[in-house]
Each structure stands twice: as C-alpha cells, then as structure tokens.
Amino acid sequence: MRWIWIDKFTEFTSKQSATAVKNVSLAEEHLHDLYPAFPIVPNSLIVEGMAQTAGILVGEARNFQEKVVLAKISKATFHRLVRPAETIQFAAKIEQLNEQGASITGTVTVNGEPVADIELMFSHVDQNLAGLEFPEHNFVFTEQFTELLKTARPSKPVML
Amino acid sequence: MAMSRDEIYTKVQAVLVDALGVDEEEVTPNAVIRDDLGAESIDFLDIMFRLEKAFNIKIPKGEMMPENVANDPNIVKDGVVTPQGIAMLKEKMPHSDFSSFEADPKLDNMSKLFTVNAIVNYVQQKLEQPQAA
Predict the structure, then answer these.
(1) How far is CA B25 from its chain centroid?
(2) I need a surface site. Which of A13, B21, B52, B83 has the fewest CB within 10 A?
C-alpha cells in the first residue's frame, strides 16, 4: 500500500495548478518521533505532500502515460512548524513541462500563514534512461493516486 | 537590442548558481558543468528549464548536448569516441571547444565538452538565430 499524504484536492486546473489539503491528527504516530512531548509534522513529510500534489498534477498533464518520479528538491524553505489539528494546504504550480519532465513551484500554508516554499523537479523516467529499462506498467500512478484526483470534483455528503 | 556576451554570461552564471547551489566564484568560463560544478543527470534538465525561462528560448531535446551517443558503435568504440563520432559531435555542438577532447577522445572525457563557456556560446548562437513567429 502506498502512503497517501494528502486528503483531498480542492482545486485542479489541468497542466497549470493544483491545491490539496491534509488534516493533521494527533493520532498519527510519526508526529511523535522527532521531539518527545512536542508533536510536529516532520518537514520531510511536508515536502512529500507537495511532491504528491504536484506529482499528480504533472502526471495528469500527460494522461498518466509517463512514469513521473520526484528527481530533485531544488528548494525547500520552512517558515513555521505544523502541529496536530492543523490543516495543511499544498498549492503547486507547473512552471515548465516537456517530454523529459517538469519543474514546479509550491507554497505550503496553514490558515493562510506561510509554512514552506518548495521547488521540485520531476522526471519522466522512461525519457531519461539512456538505454536502461523500467517495468512496462506504470508503477507510479496506481489506482490510489488516480482515485485521489477525483476528490477535486465537488461532492455532496454521503447520506446514510 | 541584442544582449552582449557579458550580459549572457552573467545570466548563465545566475542560472547555474540557482540550479546547482554553487557559489558565483565557482562558475568560471572553463568550469566543467559535471566535473567542476557537480551537476548530476537531472540537473541538466533543471539548467535547461532555467535557461529557457531566463532567455525566453526553446531548447529542443538533445540540441545543447547530444543524447545516447554512448550506445552507438559508430560513435563510440572500446570506450573511445571515433573520428566519425567526433565529426558528428562537432557538428551538433558548435558551441563546445574540442581542442583538448580531440587529443584524448575517451568517452569519459566527453563531459568536459560541456563547460560554462559552452552554455554561453549556445545561448548566444540561439539568440542570434531568427525567432520563429
């Protein structure tokens, strides 16, 4: 099972931008691993949330035909910690996209307050292998990821 | 007005500082992008994207640096670039200085063709070409 680090897309404009949210719960074990009695979201997982938001945006831009892999964290500047019960917003924008890969800029906020500025590079691995081969099937975009994209559509509460 | 070589150099320097996290002083004209500035494969795509943005140009795949040449037996034989290969590379990379490479054309030395000066030359040539409408 893949670890999905965003809960829902709140905006998705194909080939341009996407915004996703993640609700942080005290019940998440990894929050307690960094500092005793002071749970925080590790910055590395904030980068992962942005990578998932932006990675799906980049993948969708080519109809999930490419294996999109996070290749470089060009920049990651953090401004504040994220604590339990907060909602993280990941906003990603495609800066450049071609057959080889994409670059994105992202801003992370909580309640409109800046948490981090992140720039990432994604590689379309099949285009950058110099003779090497990866498995035929797209191991990046599993059903879990593509289902997540559907959350960008407005939905009504599920009534019982 | 056309951009001067110094202006191009300053912009290329800024691109490399941002893409590779190196100091400005390290980006000298003869610095080799891979060996001296520590670029890895994905950095070349990063550099390409940043150049496209900085100079408002389009860089087609393989134009700045030919790809997959190592797998072609006409170009590389026993780890050495053949005379035919050198001729092909010279044609495809008019922005690079081949004088040292021709003296010792090992495949491993090919990365030395891609210097800061080569990028500046490439951009200069690109900017001198008539832009597509």
Answers:
(1) 19
(2) B83
What average pLDDT does the structure give for chain B?
A: 91
Q: Residue B96 corresponds to which amino acid? A: S
SS (H, E, C) B88-104: HHHHHCCCCCCHHHHHC
Q: Say which residue the tokens 């003779």 belong to.
A: A131
CB pair distance less than 8 Å for A101 and B43: no
Q: Is the dihedral of CA B90, B93, B97, B102 positive or negative?
A: negative
Buried b (16+ CB within 10 A) or exposed e, B96-110: beeeebeeebebebb
**Homologous superfamily of B1-65+114-133:** ACP-like (1.10.1200.10)
Q: What's the rounded Cα separation, in Å, for the pair B126 and B52?
A: 11
Q: Does B42 touch chain A (CB under 8 A)?
A: yes
- Lowest-pLDDT choice from A1-10, A50-59, A134-143, B109-118: A134-143
Nearest to A71 among B42, B53, B70 (CB): B42
Q: State the DSSP H helix or E strand holding residue A75, giving kind and residue range, or none if neither.
A: strand A68-78
pLDDT at B132 over 70: no
Whether B111 shows a pLDDT value over 60: the answer reads: yes
How far apart, in whole angstroms, are the C-alpha atoms of residue A126 and residue A123? 9
From chain A, the residues in CB contact with B46 under 8 A are 72, 74, 103, 121
On whether the CB atoms of residues A37 and A26 are closer than 8 A, the answer is no
User: CA-CA distance, B115 to B95, in Å (whole number)?
Assistant: 10
Distance CA B17, CA B53 (A): 15
pTM of the model: 0.85
Q: Give the start-to-end residue ranges of the domains of chain B.
A: 1-65+114-133, 66-113
